[in-house]
Amino acid sequence: MSGKFPLIQREDERDVEVNWEDQQRINQFSKLNVRLERLEDSYKTQKTEKEYLDDLAMEIELLDDEEPVPYRIGDTFVMLPLEEAQERVEKDKDTIDARVEDLDSQISAIAEEMEVLKKALYGKFGRAINLEKD
Q1: Which domain of life is it from (predicted)?
Q2: N vs C: which end of the chain shows fewer Cβ within 10 Å?
Q3: pTM (global) more than 0.85
């Protein structure tokens, strides 16, 4: 499938035709960029949640063993024995750690794929195409 796309002028003033394969690479790069941004936002959210849980774990350690601990489950707070609250915090931290690790590996894989596309597109179009974040 060889469609005609507009010409892009390189920095050396030569016209370079944007063929169907080039357009597919540009489209793929754009899709990956959007996905990367979403994953990075989710990564930041999970890291923040992990920090909150770390702070909570330290606060719980300072509580009296006899005091029940208010613990949020969904939109509700439930009073739990100290030991059970500590176990839940550790379990939640482990869950978030797994999510963060998964997001990190997805981000790395997408970044690698984007680098391959960047090299190919910059190789053909030079400065006539901008693939960098602002």
Answers
A1: Eukaryota
A2: C
A3: no
Q: Tell me yes or no: is domain 20-126 CATH 3.30.470.10.
A: no
126: its two tokens: 């030079």
In the chain, domain spans: 20-126
CA atoms within a 13 Å half-sphere pointing along the CA-CB vector of 66: 0
**pLDDT tens, position by position, 54-63:** 999 999 888 8
Nearest-angstrom CA–CA distance, 96 and 45:
10
pLDDT of 14 strictly over 80: no
pLDDT at position 74 is 86
Per the CB < 8 A criterion, the answer to whether 22 and 121 are in contact is: yes
CA distance linking residue 12 with residue 55, whole number of Å: 57
Cα(15)–Cα(21) distance, rounded to whole angstroms? 17
Whether 78 contacts 70, CB under 8 Å: yes
